[in-house]
């Protein structure tokens, strides 16, 4: 059972999300919060698997709440999906760097939301790769000139290949097909890459790939 904490300052939004999520046999909403400080308190009390976190809220906003959650060893295992709209690209990128595991548009289809929750909790692939790539690439292009990261020197040639495919938004199974490896081998490579680079999840891996110029923004659709 995937335990979800809903965080949004609009009660009707929370009610809509709860209705969609609680209708699934494998997902259960364990609590709701209207701002970040309350979300952190409930995260400690309820220990959810995932937090659906709005970005803009009164008091402690979603960005700061995500930073605090990711920095707290007792809460760092909890995944975060940010809720946003296209006109908040800068906030989205900041959220990903702060430790969010992905994001959903507030007008996403129910099936996209449900799939996103399962994917992020599983840690297997990025949310909506076509959207994720565009947002990360667009903000990376406007943020600062990318520079090689010395941590990448620790990777083998094969690990670099796997990381590049992960940065394209491919799942382990898709990477396995492209590189003629087994999904289990890809999973092992991804785990080793994250350990070597000191990143907490797959999204952080993608952010690092863009920031270090492994992937050049705009190189693909």
Kindly report the spatial arrangement of strands forming the biggest sheet.
2-1-3-4-5
CATH topology-level name of the largest domain: Rossmann fold
Question: At the fourth CATH level, what is the homologous superfamily of the largest domain?
Answer: Response regulator
The helix tally amounts to: 10
How much of the sequence is in beta strands?
Answer: 5-15%
Mean pLDDT: 85
User: Alpha-carbon distance between the termini?
Assistant: 35 Å
Query: How is the quaternary structure best described?
Result: single chain
**Low-confidence segments:** none
The biggest beta sheet reads: 5 strands, parallel
Shape annotation = globular
Radius of gyration computed on alpha carbons = 17 Å
In CATH, the architecture of the largest domain is 3-Layer(aba) Sandwich
User: Domains counted in the coordinates: how many?
Assistant: 2
User: What's the helix-strand series?
Assistant: EHEHEHEHEHHHHHH
Class derived from helix and strand content? alpha/beta
- Output the CATH class name of the largest domain: Alpha Beta
Q: Helicity level, as a percent range? A: 40-55%
Q: Give the strand tally.
A: 5
Account of the protein in words:
With about 220 residues, the chain is of the alpha/beta class. The chain folds into two domains: about 1-120, Rossmann fold (3-Layer(aba) Sandwich); about 145-210, Winged helix-like DNA-binding domain superfamily/Winged helix DNA-binding domain (Arc Repressor Mutant, subunit A). Helices cover about 50% and strands about 15% of the residues. The protein has ten helices and five strands, in the order E-H-E-H-E-H-E-H-E-H-H-H-H-H-H. It has a five-stranded parallel β-sheet, with helices on both faces. Strand 4 (about 80-85), helix 4 and strand 5 (about 100-105) form a beta-alpha-beta unit. The longest helix is centred in the middle third of the chain and has 15 residues, at about 130-145. The model has no long low-confidence stretch (mean pLDDT about 85). InterPro entries: CheY-like_superfamily, NreC/VraR/RcsB-like_REC, Sig_transdc_resp-reg_C-effctor, Sig_transdc_resp-reg_receiver, Tscrpt_reg_LuxR_C, WalR-like. Pfam families: GerE, Response_reg. This is Response regulator. Keywords: DNA-binding, Phosphoprotein, Transcription, Transcription regulation.
